[in-house]
Amino acid sequence: MSAHAQKKKNPIWDWLTTVDHKKIGILYLATGAFFFLLGGLEAILIRIQLLYPENNFVGAQTFNELLTMHGTTMIFLAAMPLVFGFFNAIVPLQIGARDVAFPFVNSLGYWLFTAGGIMLNLGWFLGGSPDAGWTGYAPLSTTSPGNGVDFYVLGLQISGIGTLIGGINFLVTIVNMRAPGMTFMRMPLFTWTTFITSGLILFAFPALTIGLALLMLDRLFGTQFFAAEAGGNPIIYEHLFWIFGHPEVYILILPAFGIFSEVIPVMAKKRLFGYSAMVFATALIGFLGFMVWVHHMFTVGLGPIANSIFAVATMLIAVPTGVKIFNWLFTMWGGKVVFTTANLWAVGFIPSFVLGGMTGVMLSVPPADYQYHDSYFVVAHFHYVIVGGVVFGLFAGMYYWWPKIFGRMLNETLGKIHFWLFFIGFHLTFFPQHFLGLMGMPRRVYTYLSGQELETANFVSSIGAFLMGVATIVMLWNIIQTSVAGKKASNDPWDARTLEWAISSPPPEYNFAQTPLVRGLDAFWLEKRAGNKTMTPAEPLDDIHMPDSSILPFMMAVGLFIAALSAIYSSWAIAIGGLVLTFAMMFLRSVIDYHGYHIHKEDLPSEGVDGK
Amino acid sequence: MGSHQNDSVSKHDQSHLDIHHKIAHQKELKQHIVSFAMMIFLTMLSFIAVASEAISTRFAILFILVLAGIQAAFQLYIWMHLSHKGHQYPTWGIFFGIGVAATCVAAGAAMIW
C-alpha cells in the first residue's frame, strides 16, 4: 500500500497476532468452513449407516459419537463461527468504522473459539468422542464412560467464552462506532440483526456456562447436581440448556435473516419493504426467544398449564417471522429481480424455511408434540429451519460478500450448479424424514428393522445427503478455481446499497481513509443516486490510528486449552500451569502499554473516502 | 434555546441556563438526602426484623429480601444516576439480565418435578 508498510512480517506470525477485524473475519470463515466440512462428513457417515436396515457400517457406539459430534460441530463450530465471520468481515464496514470497539478482545474471542473447537474434536484421537447427543442431557452425559463427554463440556465451555466476548464486542461496536449520521434507524438490516444477535449471546450464553460448569463439577469433581439418586435433579440441566438453547437457534437464524435482507433488495433493485417492521420483528423474535424454551421439554411432564403457556408463546413467534417473510416477498414484488447465485439462495430459502416454520407450529401443540417428540419429524423440522434458513443464508452471504472480502468474484455458473445440487439434495434428504417420523422412526437410533416400510424413505434420504456432499465439492472447486484464476472484483459488483461497497475490494486495512457521512438508509445508494461516485467524507483527511497486533490472545487460549486438557486427565499440576499461563498473559496485557501506530495522511492514496 | 450566533450563548441565555441547572441541582440534592434517610431507615427496619422476637424467621427473610430490592433500586437510580439521560443501554441490559436470571431461578425452583 504505502510507505508505512510494516517490515514484511512472517505471514504465519501475522495471522496469529492480527487484531484486524477483516483478517479475524477470514480466520472465522476458514475455521468455520473446515468444521462445516467435518460436520458434513459426519452426516454422510450417519446416512451411509442408515442407507439400509440393520446396516453394520459403523457400530452403535460410533454412531452415537458421530451423531453427537455432527450436531455439536454444526451448531457451535460451523454455524456460529461462520456467522461471526460475517459479523467481523462486514459489520464494521457497514457502519463506517475503522475496526471493532475492542480489536484485542476480538482476536481473543477467535482463539478461544478455536481452542474449544479443537478440544471438542480431540476425542476422535483420544479414545472416544462425546456420545450423549448435542444437548448432553444428564444423566446420560454424567454417566457416560470414558473422557468423551469431558471434551464436550470443556471444549464448549472454552469456545463459549470466546463467543460471549465476541457478542459483547459487537454490542459495543454498534452502539459506539457508527459513522456520523448513521442513526439506529439508518443501520443496514444485517447490522441490526448482528446487534440483536449479540444481545441474545450476552444473555443466553451464561445459562449454558452454568449448565456446563455444573456438568463439569459432576463429571470431574464428584458432585451430584444432576444425580437423582443423591438428591440432585437432571431436569435442572434441561432447563439451563434450553434457556440457552432456544435463544441459540435465534442467534443462528437472525444473522441469516439479516443477510437475506441485504441480498434481496440489492438483487431486486428496490429498497427493503417495511424496514422499520423488519427491525421491530427482529427485536421481537429476539425477545420472545427467551420465553419459549419449555417447548423442547413438553414431554418432560411439567404439567398442562406450563405446557399451554409455552405453546402459546411459541406460536406467537410465527407472527413476527411471518411479517419478515412477507416483507421479503414484497421487496421482490415489482422489482427488477436478478437471479445471481446469492439471490438464488435467498429465493430458495423462502419456501424451504416456511416449510420448517409450518412444522414448527405443528410441534408447538403439546398433545401433538407427544407424538412427534424424539422422532424423525423433529429431525426434519430443525434441519428445514437450520439448513433451509441458516445454511442457505450463509451461502447467500458467501456469494454476495466474497468479492468484498477476498477481492475476487466467484464463478456464477459453478455457483448455480452448487445451489441446485444442494437445494435438490436438501429437500431429498429431509422431506422424507417428516414421514419417517410420523411412521414412528425414533431419532438418534443407529439402525432400523426391515419390513417396517422405512427402507425407501431412508434410502432416498441418504441419496439426498450424498447429493449435498457433491454440491459441497462443487463449491470447493469454485473457491479453488476462482482464487487461482478468478476475475478481480470491482468496488461495487452488485450495484449495492450499503457502505461496505463504497470502498475497494478487499478494503484497505484502515477501511475508510475518511469516515463517511451518512445521509440516510442505504447510504451508498443515496450517494449514487445523487450522482456521487464515493461517499461524502465527514472529516478532513488525517493520520489514522491503528491498533497494535498481539500474540497474547493466542497464548491465553493455549493456556486455557492446556488447563482443560490436563484437568480431564487429572494432571492438576499441569492444569494449574495452564491457568498460570493464561493469567500471566492477562497480567502482561494489563501492564504493557499499547500505543498503536499511525498511518500518516501523506501515505494515504489521494482518492479520499473510498480508500482506493 | 434562543438565537445564538457563532455558536456562542448570549449572556441572557447563559443566565437562564444557570438557573435551570441550579434548580435541577437542588432537586437532585433533595432526592439524595431523602433517599439517604430512607436507606438508613430501611436498614434499621431490617435489623429490627431480625432482632425482634415478634417477627417469624420466615417472614423476616422475605421482608429483608424485599427491602434489599428497594435498596438496590435506590442505589441504581439515585446514587448511580441510572435515571439520567443516556443510560438506556445500561438500563435495558440490567433489566433484561435480571429477567433472564430470574427466569433461570424460577425454572430451577418451580418447574421441576
TrEMBL record, chain A:
InterPro entries: Cyt_c_oxase-like_su1_dom, Cyt_c_oxase-like_su1_sf, Cyt_C_Oxase_1, Cyt_c_Oxase_su1_BS, Cyt_c_oxidase_su1_bac. The chain crosses the membrane at residues 26-52, 72-96, 108-127, 151-177, 189-217, 240-260, 272-293, 305-330, 342-362, 382-402, 414-436, 456-480, 551-568, 574-592. It catalyses: 4 Fe(II)-[cytochrome c] + O2 + 8 H(+)(in) = 4 Fe(III)-[cytochrome c] + 2 H2O + 4 H(+)(out). Keywords: Cell membrane, Copper, Electron transport, Heme, Iron, Membrane, Metal-binding, Oxidoreductase, Respiratory chain, Translocase, Transmembrane, Transmembrane helix, Transport. GO terms for biological process: electron transport coupled proton transport; oxidative phosphorylation; respiratory electron transport chain. It comes from the Bacteria. Its EC number is 7.1.1.9. The keyword Transport applies. It is an enzyme of class 7 (translocase). Residues 7-519 form the Cytochrome oxidase subunit I profile domain. Pfam families: COX1. GO terms for molecular function: cytochrome-c oxidase activity; heme binding; metal ion binding; oxidoreductase activity. It is a multi-pass membrane protein. It is found in: Cell membrane. Pathway: Energy metabolism; oxidative phosphorylation. Cytochrome c oxidase is the component of the respiratory chain that catalyzes the reduction of oxygen to water. Subunits 1-3 form the functional core of the enzyme complex. CO I is the catalytic subunit of the enzyme. Electrons originating in cytochrome c are transferred via the copper A center of subunit 2 and heme A of subunit 1 to the bimetallic center formed by heme A3 and copper B. Belongs to the heme-copper respiratory oxidase family. This is Cytochrome c oxidase subunit 1. The gene is ctaD.
From TrEMBL, chain B:
The keyword Endoplasmic reticulum does not apply. It holds the Pfam family COX4_pro. It is a multi-pass membrane protein. Keywords: Cell membrane, Membrane, Transmembrane, Transmembrane helix. GO terms for cellular component: plasma membrane. It is found in: Cell membrane. The chain crosses the membrane at residues 33-52, 59-80, 92-112. This is Cytochrome B6. It comes from Exobacillus caeni.
